Amino acid sequence: MKIAVTSQGATLESKMDPRFGRAAYIMIVDSETMAFEVFDNSENANALKGAGIKTSVLISENGAKVLLTGYCGPNAFKTLHTGGLKVVNDVNGSVKEAVLAFNDGIFTYSEGPNKDGHW
Amino acid sequence: MIISVASGKGGTGKTTVSTNLAYSVQDATILDCDVEAPNAHLFLKPVIKDVVKAHVTIPKVDEKICNLCKKCMDICQFSAIAVIGKSLLVFPELCHSCMGCFEVCPEDALIKDKRLIGSVESGKSEDLNFIKGILKTGESMSPPLIKRVREHQRKKVNIIDAPPGTSCPVIASMTGADFVLMVTEPTPFGMHDLKLAVEAVKLLNIPYGIVINRSGKGDNEVNKYAEKENIPVLMEIPFDRKIAELYSNGEILAKEPVWKRKFKDLFNKISKLAEKEAAI
Prior knowledge:
The complex is a heterodimer of chains A (119) and B (280).
Chain A: E1 2-7, E2 25-30, E3 36-40, H1 42-45, H2 51-61, E4 66-68, H3 74-82, E5 86-88, H4 95-103
Parallel strand pairs in A: 1-4, 4-5
Antiparallel strand pairs in A: 1-2, 2-3
Helix pairs in contact in A: 2-3
Chain B: E1 2-6, H1 14-24, E2 28-32, H2 41-44, E3 47-61, H3 71-75, E4 81-84, E5 87-90, H4 100-104, E6 110-125, E7 128-135, H5 143-150, E8 157-161, H6 168-174, E9 179-184, H7 188-204, E10 208-215, H8 221-229, E11 233-238, H9 241-248, H10 257-279
Parallel strand pairs in B: 1-8, 1-9, 2-7, 2-8, 9-10, 10-11
Antiparallel strand pairs in B: 3-6, 4-5, 6-7
């Protein structure tokens, strides 16, 4: 299964970026093979508004079924939920650690956003 | 003629200047465009005759027709539309009503819906026409409401009480004006924000001048700046306890003949400067 992880860098060892919409990079990792694709998210990160919505569309279009991140706001959560993606908030550590922890089945899917919208 | 009263910094005296100016000239219309916190009514005490709700147009999708082509999402500069999975989501509070999505939809799958953003009140304060916009609490989209307020501009003298700052609502309150009157105070903070406001008005290519409120207090930096930049200082309102008391009681300073004359003079100076610019 393809897992999207918010990341500060472009490798599996990179630390996770706690932000979703304005994350520096999005890593889409195959949870079985650990093969990954890197997406530079700087365009969305610098968006005036709606960064979470845009990033949600990006990960969905690239096949992710689950998002592991730190904070997810209301508009992003709504978009992901509509697209049928599952979200796990409050995840930290490296990208690799996050995916391995997901594979170990220790996460429970979040039922809502854990951050207020930005104005 | 349209005179927009702006400031940069908040609390410098835009409402004091705009209400007194409107009160001192004949057949004026005052338009309170500080729609997040309108307060000109506190001084002019108008009788409101009409209240009209203000809406903006937003898209709503007809899911039976939409084929999820994403053209609407791609043209939207504000992420107000997301096509994800088998759905099209609209975020109404992000929509700027540019109508781009309606234009590009090849299937005519978008229906025009509307969203309430506030209301426009109109009435009279003696012989003065009074217009006020009130933004709905929690709403952030004020420029469309400001445009709705400005639809009430008349042929004669229009005085706009603009919001503070230099962002979109201020630009919406200055665009198309014949003159921008900048109200500032002789403090470092007033000076700092005045410079920003001057930069904004320069981009709009509108003639402008300064009113210094609470003059005699603070420093002399605003006068020095005005001289250096060749910006006319059209009036100074002294830092005076009596003026502050009148303001606190919601009174119009120009009810005193000496101040009415000063505000009339201010209006005459503005008219000359605006005419001069129009001639060039």
